[in-house]
Amino acid sequence: MAIYLTKESKVLVQGMTGGEGMKHTRRMLAAGTDVVGGVNPRKAGRTVDFDDRAVPVFGSVREGIEATGADVTVVFVPPAFAKAAVMEAADAGIGLAVVITEGIPVHDSVAFHRYAKASGTRVIGPNCPGLITPGQSNAGIIPADITKPGRIGLVSKSGTLTYQLMYELRDIGFSTCVGIGGDPVVGTTHIDCLAAFQEDPDTELIVLIGEIGGDAEERAAAYVREHVTKPVVGYIAGFTAPEGKTMGHAGAIVSGSSGTASAKKEALEAAGVKVGSTPTETARLVLDHLEAARDVTHS
What we know:
Layout lengths: L9 E5 L4 H12 L3 E6 L7 E4 L2 E6 L2 H8 L3 E4 L3 H14 L3 E4 L6 H14 L2 E3 L5 E4 L3 E4 L8 E8 L2 H10 L5 E6 L10 H10 L5 E7 L4 H12 L4 E6 L23 H10 L3 E3 L2 H20 L1
Parallel strand pairs: 1-2, 1-5, 2-4, 5-6, 6-7, 10-11, 10-12, 12-13, 13-14
Antiparallel strand pairs: 3-4, 8-9, 8-11
EC number: 6.2.1.5
Pathway: Carbohydrate metabolism; tricarboxylic acid cycle; succinate from succinyl-CoA (ligase route): step 1/1
Catalytic activity: GTP + succinate + CoA = succinyl-CoA + GDP + phosphate; succinate + ATP + CoA = succinyl-CoA + ADP + phosphate
């Protein structure tokens, strides 16, 4: 089991013939992802050779779905065209759109998120690394060789911290890792992933990575308190960030006491979430919990 992405997922890549699209399509294929086609209206009808596999290029998402049965698209198009790309995918009835592109104007993100939701399309991102179900499928830019399948579910605003926690907990492994992105407006939230991991029988423990800015982590803490029975371990990036300065992600800005790492840590701990002060300490909290759970089981 996994959330959102499995070995049965059939993946299109919008922007596959561009530099980033080509590079990461090759990496997705190497990870075992069933990439069934690319989308580029100017190159429709061609095929692109990736090592031992030729991938067809379609003129539209709808054509790709009709020809292949695709149910996931990964969007690598430039920011100016991202809104149209996601809306096209939603119109075609795609189930999941993973928007890797960064630098998309917030008003465009608001528009395509609303449009996709009304169409029944789940959006992950934008400005995100995508998601991976190790050993099954990889949709995006997350390295596939730094962990293995296991029973930890991971949801994170930060791409690099996603990778670090995956590596630190590589001996345990993950059910699915989801990088939701750090923009002020994202399609899939911490809460969405918490709910999905709660229902996934193969996820034993959930790791939640947040960062300064906004109130997403506080809302996630409230959701954990009311709805999540599985153990949750957290980490908040940005304890040393100066007030009023945007740090990295567009959403990572602190105003007064709102959105601080300390406030988020306090809210999560009040909901029963153990929060590490560093990524390494967070990984240790996960290991300690799993070891304690095994001791109880064997006693």
